[in-house]
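Hey, can you fold this one?
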Amino acid sequence: MGQENALGQIMKMHSIPSAPLRQNLPQSQLIRQLHAFAEKRGIQLYLVGGSVRDLLLNRPIADLDLALAGDAITFAKAFAAKIGEAFVKLEEQPPTARIVIRETQLTLDFAGFRAETLEGDLRLRDLTINAMVLDLSSFLTKPMVNLINPCNGFADLKARTLRFPSEGVVIDDPLRLLRVYRFAAQLRFEIPEATINLIRRHKNRLPQVSSERIRDELTKILNVKNATAYLRRMDETRILSQIIPEIEEIRGLYQNALDHSLIALEMFESELIPDTLESYQPHIEAYLREELVSDLCRQQILKLALLLHEGGIEMAVRITNRLRLGRKATRLMRCLLQNNLYLMGLIDTDGQIERQAMTRFLRKAGDDWLGGLLLSYANLRASQGNIHQTDALIKQIANLYYHEIGPIMERGRLITGDDILRTFGVAPGIKIGRILQHIEDLQFEGKIGTPEEALEAARTFLERY
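Sure. Predicted structure:
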């Protein structure tokens, strides 16, 4: 069917000013070059989906979605060659390809229509707010442009509400049941009762979806500032236990077990950096934002750890593996929960920890002592303990690390086994290891701080043993 006929099938259009929207278009010169390239080949391109949604919401755009009636793969490959950028074929059906602009990391995704007409394509999309189109040619060249809007997504965008174009789109791809919550979290949109009813009706389909696709949506939810609110909503419809069945085990551990986890997560999100640790803010922010892999940082894993910690270390690690979060995330999950357990076990009934025990914790915990500390702090606040006592405790531990233990770790050993061999003529063996361990203990206890003092301590050790 020709392009004019396809447009003739569109039932709803809104004429809107194009100039304000063009101001938000990334790399406009490149997009104009793309438009000229398409026109020469008689191809009509459409901005579609999330690109249109974000232009209308005045949100930053890191990628552009474009649709065309012809062969999207061949077209994208030709344009990538023209501009000398990377081309990636994504899917054969529907034909889908990507161009990555290396310098800016802008991505251009091209897809052929998934139906005979453009309207048919839009009606197959996940949400009405993602089922809108702008004709690229009119958008770039005319003062007004028609917003093609067959599913009434423009009204839903203005009402800040999330609806499916039809029940069929959920049946075709059950991941959309989870994606609703992701968009609600990212955009702060409401999920109306009609959408909730469809979620409840089809939630049992979600386990059909691959772990990788579920992981991508879940980590995006965990990345928002107030993920707890949306995890609670997911739990209300039991979507949460569809993607993490062990949630039901946690719920059954004791009364309000899951609620305690969610409160602890809420406490963490409300105060990522406790006021008492404000002086260490740059260090803590850098720690939380450090990426384990692309689009996954420590902060997201810490949130997941708070959600799952009541179920124990092995359960949390099993879930992390099943979600295919990667080896670094799995190691971090285990480390965070071990550090949390160890730290909570050190706290006495008065909410105190002896200095020696704190030093032992910091040496044992390694780089992720901070994650364990933040996790424990959130748990202590969720338990409604003495907040002032808790604040004093975490500051005491952080001060000890940043002023004493951390610098010692960064400096490393005062002397080596070779130094002991040369100075005292001790034969190689386990005795040297014991001397080095003894010196390291003295170093962390603050009793020695120079190589000369370390050698004297080694001499004393040899005289005694």
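The first strand starts at residue 13 and ends at 17. Let me know if you want another pass with a different chain boundary.
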